[in-house]
Amino acid sequence: MKTVFFDVDTQLDFMYPAGGLYVPGAETIVDKIAALNRYAGRNGIVVISDVDAHAEDDPEFQTWPPHCVAGCLGQQKPAATLLEKRIVIPNVPTDLPLDGVQQVLLEKQTLDCFSDVNLPGLLERLGAERYVVYGVVTEICVKLAAFGLLKTGKRVELVTDAVRSLNHAAAADMIDAFLAAGGILTTVSVATHTL
After folding, report:
1. Is the pTM of this model over 0.70?
2. Are residues 40 and 154 in contact, defined by beta-carbon separation less than 8 angstroms?
């Protein structure tokens, strides 16, 4: 079954206490994100890592504290989560040079990764039958990615021990809704031993 791993917003500003929009406990899953990404890289599974790439005066900063400003340290991913053969795809129509690529850093300026104009074409090119989703924040950006992927009609799995939330009740509601919509729950150990 052709699989794509989907790594959501695992950037320094979210993952560590010094970050601009720290998600409590996120630093405890960096090793799990890294393990998932490395497993994918070793097994020919492309990782789509969506990443915020905000302008300094981004409208989102009226709702959320400034974070992940393009080119700043906080916008970067932890080094352990990066694969060697990677490309950055900005949120402007662009060619998708995927030959030999292990990881796609897909830039976005809103909560929803499907706001990147290149994502539908990228998913079509990759032709996955299964998506494995993890990252932050469970009830916001992970939710938008997971439900967007469910709309493709493909199998979507959420790695429950590789996500973190800001609101536990909202995250629990998201998981209930995800299951009701046909999503599947998995863990790092299962997701990395399914080939």
Report:
1. yes
2. no
Kindly tell me the sign of the dihedral angle through the C-alpha atoms of 152, 175, 134, 195: negative
> Cis peptide leading into 137, omega within 30 of 0?
yes
Q: Which residue has the tokens 């320094």?
A: 12
Distance CA 23, CA 96 (A): 31
Domains of the chain as residue ranges with CATH: 3-191 (3.40.50.850)
Q: Tell me the residue length of the chain.
A: 195
Phi, psi of 152 (to 5 degrees): -75, -15
Q: What are 156's two structure tokens?
A: 């979507």
The pLDDT tens digits of the residues spanning 8-21 come to 999 999 999 999 99
Cα distance between residue 79 and residue 30, in whole Å: 10
Alpha-carbon 54 to chain mean position: 16
The first and second tokens of residue 191, run together, are 């997701």
**Residue 12 contacts residue 2 (beta carbons within 8 Å):** no
Helix (H) / strand (E) containing 176: helix 168-180
